[in-house]
């Protein structure tokens, strides 16, 4: 076998090995590496584009979030203002109703007081009349003579006033 005869065959085999290696290497380098480089560049460009798109989307989302937060804060302020106005209106309405109820109660109290005063005056008149009759009866029993009705009424009025 001539390939195992290292004395005569080593250098030609080494040269053929170098030639085939060079053909295969440059064939691979010339065909595969440019494609591989284009793929790597395309992926790098795509990743950079995606990062730029993500950053712009994040900036837009931050802007929308800030606008949303501002809108919510403004809505809360409007709600607070509306609530304050509603409370003030309700307070005024309640004060008005309380004033009307107080006026109605005052009118009823004045009417009741007038009725009480009238009833007291009638009761005092009746008591005075009963007291005058009782005093006249007592004086008549004690003295045997009946006093004049005007004198009995005057005496009973004086006794009740004291």
In short:
The protein has two helices and no strands. The protein has 162 residues and is mainly alpha-helical.
Structure, described:
The chain is mostly helical and 162 residues long. Helices cover 93% and strands 0% of the residues. It contains two helices and no strands. The longest helix has 138 residues, at 6-143. The radius of gyration is 62 Å and the shape is rod-shaped. The N and C termini lie far apart (166 Å).
Strand tally is: 0
Q: Which strand-content bin applies to the residues?
A: under 5%
**Main sheet record:** none
Low-confidence stretches: none
First-to-last CA distance: 166 Å
Rg over alpha carbons: 62 Å
SS class = mainly alpha
Q: Average pLDDT value? A: 88
| Backbone shape | rod-shaped
Number of continuous helical runs: 2
Helix residue percentage: over 70%
Order of helices and strands: HH
